[in-house]
Every structure is written in C-alpha cells, then in structure tokens.
Known about the structure:
Layout: H1 4-29, H2 33-41, H3 43-78, H4 88-93, H5 95-143, H6 155-169, H7 175-185, H8 195-218, H9 223-232, H10 234-246, H11 253-272, H12 276-284, H13 300-311, H14 315-325
Helix pairs in contact: 1-10, 1-12, 2-3, 3-5, 3-11, 5-6, 5-11, 7-13, 8-10, 8-11
Protein name: Protein EI24 homolog
Organism: Hibiscus sabdariffa
InterPro entries: CysZ/EI24 (IPR059112)
Amino acid sequence: MEDIKPFIEISRTKLKQASILWAEGFREACCLHRVVLLCYRSKKLLIRTGQCFLLNGFIFLGSLFVLNSVVIPILQWILPDHYTQTGCAEMSEFHGVFRFYSFLRGFLIQLFYVFWFYPLYVFSFILSNLWYNDIATHGFAAMGRSGPSVVESSKQNDKLTSDSKAHAARPAGLGGIMIGIGEQVYATGFIPYVGKALNFILLSWMYAYYCFEYKWNFTEWGLEKRLDFFETNWAFFAGFGSPCVLAIFFFSPLVGYGLMAILFPLFVLTATGTEAEQVTSARRRRFSSADELGKLPIFYAADTLLMRVLSLLPSESQGRMQDDKTL
Length: 327
C-alpha cells in the first residue's frame, strides 16, 4: 500500500493540472465577446457571419422545424395510422388502408428529404466551408487593428487580408490528410460502455484542431509544430473543443450539423483571438517540471498510417510532402 501512495499522489497532481488546462480551454472557447468585437471592427466579417447564420440557421434549421412541426403533423392528419373512433371490427377492415396511408406518408417525407434536405445539405456544406475561410481571413485581419473601425480601405489591412487569403488557400501540409484519416481511425462511438465518452473527447480534439488550423495557416506554422503543440497541450484543446461538441452531441445528425454550421465560425474566431501559447505556458509554470503533463500521441495512428502511404509514393512526391510537413 505504501508503494502505491506516490503513484496516487502523482496521478492526483496530473489530474489536477489536466483539469485546470481543460477548464482554461473551455473558458477560451466561450469567450464569444471576441466575436462581437471582431465583427464590430470588420464589416466584411459581420456580413459573412450573418450569411452563415441565415443559410444554416434560418433556412436549414428552419426547414427542419417546418418539416417536423407542420408538414409531418399535416400528413399524419390527412393520412392517419388509425381512427380512434373506429371499433375493433371496423379496424380490421381498414387495416390495409391504414398500412397504405403509412407507406404513402413515409414516401412523401422521404421525397422531402431527397429533393430538399439532401441537396440543401450539400449546398450548405460547400458554401459554408468557403465562408469559413473568409470569416477566418477577415477575423485575422481585424485582430491586427489597434481600434474598432468599419472602414476596409487601409492599404496595410488590404495587404494583411491578401496575405492571409494566400496562406489560407495554400494546402496545410499533410494536416488535412492526417485529420481525415484520424476521423476514420477514431470512430469509437460504438465501443460498449466507454464508446460515447471516448467519442466525445476525440470529437473535441478534432473540432479544436479545425478551429485553430485557420490561425496556424495564417501564422505559417508547419504541420510538425502544430501536432507537437497540440499533443503537448492535449488537455487545453480537449477543453476548447468541448463546447463545439456539446452543441451537437445530443441531437440528430441533421440538427447537429445545422447547429455546428452556425457555431463553428464563432469558435474559429475565438481561436483566432486566443493566445494558446501564453495561456498554456502560464498555467504550466505553476507546476514543477516533474509534475507536468506528458505529451499524448493523439495522432499516432493517423501518422503511422500516413507514413505507410508515403512509403508507397515516388521519391519526388515524398520529398515535396516532407518539405510541406517541415515548413
């Protein structure tokens, strides 16, 4: 029992440090007042953010609300499953009719999905991703201003915006590939008992990475530096991504997508205004080096798989991709 006490003490200290960093990340993600300030500084940012709300909130989620609250109840009234006033004997006579009504109602609802929701989902996905890039670009440009202004004609700001767009448009090394592989590797939702909890944590890391990736593109962080910083401060990023996941975790996929499409640009902007290096280093200074949290290899599986893929590529392609990785 005495031999276990040091281990328990160390574990308690590390758990405390992880909890503090998680809380810091969660707090930074919830600093939505930064979004208001940045939108006040940039008219273009305000317009793009408003368009995101209009498409994904009013049109997409509004359509879901109309379907569930208006269309489906009307179809159930016109094509009912049963009549409450009908006796048992009469019910048996109309059983085939009710089954046909049920089939027809389901068919009409599926037509609504096929010809409206699924095309709208694809359209929203493509357009939102383009807008996210614009939102991150304008937000990054607005961060460089000394005071609030809605005028976008300054040469310095124009240069910053054009440079930021160039960085955002440039591929982020192997980051997109690794995260794409990581999404498949970390599909843990169906693991019994602990699957949901693991899924929540991994989704939190994924969304946190996505939010900070725009900023890291603008500041020209190489992939190796990004992953090292992310895995070293895994507790902070788990906390930062938690509000994103909380907003969608308990809803259906379509509702969750609509909510995420509205909230994601807000968290991208809070990530743009977050000085993660200063926040994490300030917290770490409160603990001794022996008690520091270790690096957690979150992307180990994805990185290993990616290296296998790279080994199959021609040597010239490997060289170009390795150069991107070390930028």
